[in-house]
Amino acid sequence: MSTIHPPNHLSLLIHRHHPHPQFNPPPTNKFLLSTMLLDLLDNTNTTTTLMAESIPNQTFNNFFESWIGEQNTHLQELISAVNNNNNGGNEHNDDVNMIELIERVVQHYEKYYKEKSEWEKRDAISMFTPRWRSNLEDAFLWIGGWRPTLAIHLLYSKSGLQLEAKLGDLIRGITTGDLGDLSPDQIKRIDELQMKTIHEERVLTEKLAKVQESVADRSMVELSNMVSEMMRNEDEGGDGDGVSEERVELTLEMKKEEMEELLHMADDLRLKTLKAVIEILTPVQGVHFLIAAAELHLRLHEWGKKRCQRPQ
Amino acid sequence: MAGMCCGVVGETKTQSTVEPSGGGQGRRRRMEIQQLKLFATAASNVVVPLPENNIKRRKVEGFDTNTDLKRPKTCENTSQSENTAQSENAVQSEKAVQSDEVLEKEGSRFGLTVVCGRRRDLEDAIAVKPSFCKTNSPSSDDLHFYGVYDGHGCSHVAMKCKDRMHEIVKEEVKNCEKSIEWKETMVKSFSRMDKDVTEWSNCASSSNCRCELQTPQCDAVGSTAVVAVVTPDKIVVSNCGDSRAVLCRNGVAIPLSTDHKPDRPDELKRIEDAGGRVIYWDGARVLGVLAMSRAIGDNYLKPYVIPEPEVTITERTAEDECLILASDGLWDVVSNDVACSVARMCLRSQEVPSPPRSPGSVLNVARGESSDKACSDASILLTKLALARQSTDNVSVLVVDLRRSL
Q1: Percent of chain B surpassing pLDDT 70
Q2: Whole-model pTM above 0.80?
Q3: Which of A94, A201, A216, B329 has its CA 20 to 30 A from that of A240?
Q4: pLDDT tens digit string along B290-337?
Q5: ∠ CA(B11), CA(B362), CA(B129), 5° rounding?
Q6: Nearest partner of A284 among A1, A27, A29, judged by Cα
Q7: Residue B215: predicted pLDDT
Q8: What are the extents of the domains in chain B?
Q9: Region Disordered: which residues (chain B) (predicted)?
């Protein structure tokens, strides 16, 4: 499994469907920014939409829908691989096939993050509240995607289910080879990975706090006051000042850059954690894990969509 | 002695150490995880399956070597292979662990696992100190020390207990003029441990722990402590808090400690007599805060929460199989009986449960050696069972093999 390709970018589990990404500017800023600033954000979105038309996937949303379809296909392949393995057969060939399959699935995740990263470069702000996700998925998000430690919890949960299913065998020392059969060494490495991931998550969470708090930094407060003063003067028949609009754009651009960096880092951590888990597992365990990940992702997405369609 | 421990701690700290007596102070803190397998040959590195007639001899010889316990030693063959078999990633720290921490002493066979589990902070710690001291009696028997500490508020009290408790107990044992009065000795030790923690928190100027040693947060830090001192003929269990010791004797689970929960009638009375109150707020809690009625630390809850242990002294019998010490991360979801039967079956199992084709796990333990791994297998399986049953806490499990050693 060491042959898995190096990471590109990252973030996976949870997403929403919304046909018109150019609407609804991020509501969080509503209270803090003047109408004019909001207008500017909207303009940014429009620009992005225009730019998007020149590339194959017109919106990330389109990309995501086709990616989900591919994930579904992969899930079926993963299931067949497990079934073949259970039916016996050539162990070595099975391993080779499973390793190849795992590589393809991981590359599929890489493709997701690569594309996501491109969109983040174009418009980090709107990628922060991805519109391809349902409200349900949205509620569980961490910096624009799934929380990296979810990978460990997913593993523990799936492992637990498989352990309890065959506890008698395991106590008697009969190996099952699935996730219920994690070796002491694997448990140890998972625990190490968990501690490391929690630490890295915390670093990014702190970083997020800094960026979010900077919404009320001196430059923003000064600027919002300036623009407000201007608007008041305009009401009284004074002159609008074109220079300040440029300044607004410049100031917001800086925030956007910070947000973009944060998204890249969070996505990196997501993909890195996913790969690290796979590294610890045997091929057949890796297949079980990827099945659990795909099932949780796909079903959560569907449940969220259904929920959105229900009259609230 | 077979030991396996998975302890991982935040950056550089260790939550579990395994080391023999005497090595005490200068121990490394950087060990992150270890899977140790010790065999009881104090003076040699040869693998010997501890025959009865060797025990006595080693007892005598063994102590002479205590003086150089700090010096690196290597493990016997099987443990080498098992150690090598572990994570290649952790090889460096393992090496350090092996040379400094793994010493071969007679009479202690154990396996232990500490995992963070579904929590975001690791506050549990385990200490294993084989032959940590000797009795003053003419036979000069070796005593083994096992402690499980489950911290709350922060990990520093549990860490302190891990580092210090066995040293304090050792001093107190040495202070005993003739025969050891275990109850008195242990009560005194726990009280000293508690004072140590308080003084340390007051004096320490800086700390990298979560509470940053700032009052009032720091005063709200404490730890459970369940300590078992195993002598050739007795098991002395001292408990403070809701970690637990369970003896597995001929397939029957015998609890050697009783959890200190605030709603235990005698504890409730004690707290109320002292002027405290137990408030039901997400379970029974002292002053609505702490969900246990005794602990090391927790200054702000004194005198309602006390560091005085309850001590049980159990005569060992030929039917004793193993002793399980664990934090509530295990006991909340696994009953004494289930834990006992799982551990027992692992000990009895001739087959070695190890996953096939596991990467980095070249474990290939021959049949005859499999029993040495049994304690590790038991501790890891119990840990996995706790995780499977959605334990929300850190999980620490220590399994001590009591067979053969009598």
Answers
A1: 65
A2: no
A3: A216
A4: 999 999 999 999 999 999 999 999 999 999 999 999 999 999 999 999
A5: 50
A6: A1
A7: 61
A8: 16-258+311-401
A9: 66-102
Residue A223 backbone dihedrals phi, psi, to 5 degrees: -65, -45
Q: How far lies A246's CA from each of A230, B71, B99, B275, in Å?
A: 14, 70, 65, 67
Mean pLDDT on B13-40: 39
User: What are the two backbone dihedrals, phi and then psi, of residue B21, each rounded to the nearest 5 degrees?
Assistant: -65, 165
- A199 — contact with chain B (CB < 8 Å)? yes
Q: Do B90 and A170 touch (CB under 8 A)?
A: no
Tokens of A26: 């991020």
Cβ pair B357:A283 closer than 8 A: yes
- Angle of CA points A296, A301, A307, to nearest 5°: 125
Q: Do A189 and B90 touch (CB under 8 A)?
A: yes
CA–CA dist B27, B100 (Å, integer):
7
- What are the E-state strand segments in B176-304? 222-223, 225-230, 234-240, 244-249, 252-255, 278-280, 284-286, 296-297
CA distance B34 to A148: 25
Cβ within 8 Å of residue B226, ≥6 positions away: B147, B148, B237, B238, B239, B240, B241, B243, B244, B245, B257, B325
A287-298 residue pLDDT tens: 999 999 999 999
> B173, B133 in Cβ contact below 8 A?
yes
Interface A–B counts its CB contacts (< 8 A) at 132
Per-residue pLDDT tens digits for B340-384: 999 999 888 744 444 444 443 334 333 334 446 889 989 999 999
- Preceding amide of A21 cis, omega within 30: no
The answer to whether B354 and A186 have CB atoms below 8 angstroms apart is no
* pLDDT range class, residue B273, cuts 50, 70, 90: very high
Name the nearest CA neighbour of B297 among B166, B396, B150.
B150
Q: How far A98 CA lies from chain B's nearest CA (Å)?
A: 13
d(CA A12, CA B207): 37
Cβ(A167)–Cβ(B96) below 8 Å: no
Length of chain B: 406
| Vertex A48: Cα angle to A45 and A51 (nearest 5) | 155
From the number of C-beta atoms within 10 Å of its C-beta (0-12, 13-18, 19+), residue A19 rates as exposed
**Average per-residue pLDDT for chain B:** 74
Q: Residues B147, B161: contact at Cβ < 8 Å?
A: yes
Q: What ipTM was estimated for this complex?
A: 0.76
Cβ–Cβ gap B89/A192 under 8 Å: yes
Whether residues A163 and B9 touch (CB distance < 8 A) is answered with: no
> Which two three-digit tokens encode residue A68?
């989900």
* CA-closest candidate to residue A20, choices A71, A67, A60: A60
Residues of B in contact with A163 (CB under 8 A): 384-385, 388
Candidates A163, A185, A193, A205, partner chain B, best to mutate (most B CBs within 10 A): A185
- The whole-angstrom separation of Cα A248 and Cα A232 is 17
